[in-house]
Records
---
Amino acid sequence: MIPPHNSLVKYDNPILVATTKNGGQASSTQTEDILNSILPPREWTEDGQLWVQYVSSTPATRLDVINLQESLDHKLQQRQARETGICPIREELYSQCFDDVIRQVTINCAERGLLLLRVRDEIRMTTAAYQTLYESSIAFGMRKALMSEQKKGEMENTIRSLDSDTEDLEHQVGELSKRIEDIQAKEKERREADEVAHTAEVDRLKGLNEQLKASLEGLLSAPKK
């Protein structure tokens, strides 16, 4: 019978739910109950039959610890867990390894195992809190980035609008400058024309005055009859 998934935690052979667990001694019943409360049995259905698998209550030897360490290293490499940073695979495997260490300690000393259980749960809660904080910071950063992008778009629209207004004003300035130049040119032409006309009128009046003077002098110098 194949269990639903491999784990670094050591389990006994799976059994049908209809049968009783074999291999346990009466003196270890309390220890098994504690183990089952710490690491609940795994259950799965295959071919319409419900199977259950309990954690092993066999005391661990030094060789078991060495095998556990080797299995951990092998699975880390096999599943390509990252050595640094956040890695769910590495977190899962180390959690399984810690659970089996708790199992081994609980078999020899239940109180020590329960204390390790408290430590494990506290670590998990702290990790979950940090994860929540990290996700919140990521969400906050994303909101800030979106707001910045939105403000950037608004500023770009404002800049484009101001550029358009500037172009319109520059166009108006150009038109007004052209009108001023045209008016100044026309005014200059008018003044020049007035000066020419004034000069001509003065010259005409001078000529007329000379003629009148000559006529008057001629009349005055004529002999009396």
---
Amino acid sequence: MELSSVILTTGGSVGFFKLVNTGFNNLPIPESACRNAWKWRNISTSFVHSVITGIWAVLCFFLHPQMAEDLIETHSAFSHALVSVSIGYFIYDFFDMVLNQKLTQSWELLFHHIVVITCFGLSVLSCRYVGFAVVALLVEINSVFLHLRQVLRMASLAASTLYRVNSMINLGTYVVFRINTLAWMTRWLVLNRDKVPLLAYTVGSVGMAIMTAMNIVLFYRLLRSDFLKSSAREAKKEKEM
């Protein structure tokens, strides 16, 4: 893809997710979520992005399996467009948080978005490592359940069967599509050190280290919130009985 196509695709993505967010503003919101309507719309928009890019990333490897053998040079226009669309989403979400949320509440995600935009941006502009970026987007499969978890909590459905089922699927996909994917990407980067220029290797290594640390912390928070605390509450009820 030429630079003009990249700019057009990325800009179109920013506009698309803005429209999605506006669309959610016109839909009914659960009463329990009305006190923070912006967060409801933001998470719902993120959910849409995860569904689209998660499916898209799988299709990229299904339709162009050669990319799995060469994550540096081999890619299709379909894959390149996926990474450009994701950059557009992260740019949109970055400014949505900057304009609507306190920095103390969003600095972790803002930092995450800066790292992703930088790494993905280098990939689409150089037309290299697109396959590696698509592998990274496989984590969005887990993000579907991660965002659904937040939606259910905001809708006061944290005690529902749907929430408990989603929590188990969320934790399982977290291990498979986040932790395992990050571990595989780190291993790939180390094994292909000689094929990767110093700048790209440094950016990739720093980005992977940051993503790994953030995901380990998030995994602990999810485990504590959805399983450890609930187990403690059940044990307390049994003692009281």
---
Amino acid sequence: MCGNSMSAPLPAIVPAARKATAAVIFLHGLGDTGHGWAEGFAGIRIPHVKYICPHAPTMPVSLNMRMSMPSWFDIYGLNPDANEDEAGIKRASENIKALIDQEVKNGIPSHRILLGGFSQGGALSLYTALTTQQKLAGVVALSCWLPLRKSFPQASASCPNKDMHVLQCHGDADPVVPFMFGSQTAEKMKSLVNPANITFKSYRGLPHSACPEEMVDVKRFIEKQLPAIGDE
């Protein structure tokens, strides 16, 4: 897993408690690593699911005065009108598609792989799911937005995920990625995939972070989209 030709460490992994028949690939937010999210998923793990939490490469980030930190792509601003790092977003998305391919080679079909992320990672997961040729189980998108949204619907014209289920969660007190940006993203998503399959949940008083109630909702969504093989 690398980006910008700068290598990142191997992902944090929570192995399945028994044979893995499904996987969740979850992308952390700006300046973070996959370790905290791996710990979070270990607390809500489902026995047949493997959780993969990759680490973003380190790069200078314009939003933070060009300081170097883990980042999937450069960010110039966090409002709907900000310029975007189109080349970086597309490059990062290709890296995530390669990670999905690796799991398919490991024996988990892509339709049993759920993509997710928080903030910048959630943004990348939405973009990747809409532009990949891999049929996915769905997306969990927390406190985030859809990058390069003006490139859609053209960018997703041949995407096989028009009927995928999406759980989008956002705190209504988010001072970093405004709640309105999240709700506008949910409306945009409804125009790109089956609107009946888009769930947007808000959490009262939640800032730019996750909370136990939200993680329970995430677990329920994963259980529904990635049932044990015998339950399908």
---
Amino acid sequence: MLSPAALRRPLGAAARLARGSLQVLASLATGPRQNNGIFYEIRTYDIKPSKMKEFVELVHKCLHLRTAHSELVGFWTVELGAMNKAVHVWKYDNFAHRTAVRHALANDKEWQGKFISPVLPLIEKQHNEVAYLVPWCQLGKPPKEGGVYEWVTFQMKPGGPALWGEAFQAAINAHINTGYTKLIGVFHTEYGLLNTVHVIWWNESPDHRAAGRHRAHEDARVVAAVRDSVRFLESQQNMLLIPLACSPLK
């Protein structure tokens, strides 16, 4: 065991280098992140094909009971890219906050009786993820109501934002700079399928998006940024979302 005097001695060059290397590796392993505990729970429900209309009506009728407990970011049904699917996103201050909300919901007899009991027979499958906004993105809002949303999911190579963050941000900014679309948020998963990034875009209409994408693919800046970022990409998919009337993001 080292004596107290030995512990107070200045570190040698090798020890300082080793400690510095560990600090650098820790930084590279985690990468940049938001400096608060706020996270978003992304819930995806597969609805029975004959029950989507009934599901949407029940959500409109009872959602106020759920939003009394925590903040809803958006609630959509999927129009293209999947079928009979609903996506909703909830904001929490931290994990203790979510635990308290889930406990309160379990004991809310009105919520359980008016929504949970009748909705369960309408749902085939449920899935959830926990994600953080990437540090260079704040949650945005559309310039007006009445548009559509594109939800794009990127499966990135392992390594996190420290590996692919800079190139991915450049590709996102290149699309923003074309002006045809509005960025709502970029989320990086903490629970669920790891190394997943969800990007939400707003467009005036599906045709407006299609025309803008066509122009973007002819923009040399966009092409260069995308080519640089795809070296970190494993796969991607997208969905066209229609917001419910009760969704905060419309």
